[in-house]
Structures are given as C-alpha cells and as structure tokens.
Amino acid sequence: MGANNDKFGFTGDESKEEILRLLLNVNLPRIPKLYKKVLIEVLVNGKKVEDLRTSFKLPKTRLKAIYSDGIKSLKLSIIELSFRLESVDKLEHELKVTKADLQELEKSTEIEKNIPEALLEILSIKIIDTDLSTRVKNICDRSGIYIFREVVRYSKNDFLKLRDCGNLSATEMGAYLKRLGLSWNMNI
Known about the structure:
By secondary structure, the protein is an all-alpha fold. It is about 65% helix and about 0% strand. It is rod-shaped.
C-alpha cells in the first residue's frame, strides 16, 4: 500500500494500543458498536474476554462470539480500507498525470497560436496522402505517426529507432521534410 502515514497524522511513535484505538474509533460500518467496545477492552485495554461479563452483562460464550466476530469484521474492514487507500493513491497518480498532460496541452496551444496558418496546413498533411514510399508510410503507421506535425517532433536518430526503419527510410523522410520546408526536431 502506497499510503503515507503523514496523511493520517501518525508520527511513527504510536504504540500498537494507540493505533488500535484510533482504528476502532474510525467509522467502520462493518463493526457494530458493541463489537468495537469489546475489541477495545480486549485489544487496547488488555482485559480478558471473561473479565467483561459483569460490565457488559453478557454470558461468557456470547462475549467470546462477539470478540471472534469482531476480529473477523476488523480484518475485513482493514482489507477494505487498504483497497480504498490504494484507489486513492491511484487517483492521486492519475491526477498528477492529467495535470502534466494539461500543462503540456496548454504549452502546445500557446505554441500553436504563434504558428503561421500556411505552416499549420503543411504540418496537418497526412503521411498516407503523400508520395512517400509504402515502406516509410508503413513505418509511420505502425508507430502511430499520421501527420507531419508528429514527424517533425522526432530527431533523425529517434526516427531511425522506429520498427523496420533504416537509413534509406530516414533519409527519404528527411528529404521530404526539407521539400516541405520542415526539419527534424521542430518544437511544434
């Protein structure tokens, strides 16, 4: 579980009893109040189940059953909380990624405002609609590159790393970029 103790106000100096008391005082819908009281008396206060007969006015067998069921409910609640905390951690991660994506989108939108309309048209040309060789078109298609705006973000070396791309294909693409007035590694 990636949950950080700081989120819950733990310093790391708490005793097991303090942690159990905090846990049992949390609203855990799985554990009825009577069960919580019995668990606190036994787990936190160190009393024996048999000693609780007079204070709870219940038979010993009933108290043992409550204690046993309480432990089972506590375990299930802890597992459930664990899953919830993992979900929160995943959501926090997704939020960070989404914020980063949003910042990147804002940057590219700002950059796009400064790009002349004629250049935007050239960058929007579909690779499939060009007279590039079938081999180069296939390399781009397999790599998810569909327009020249996506191509110019690559360096020639990075383009060469694409599946089935060799020097001839990279040279052909470089020449085509030059013919369109574009180049490798454009910040667009």
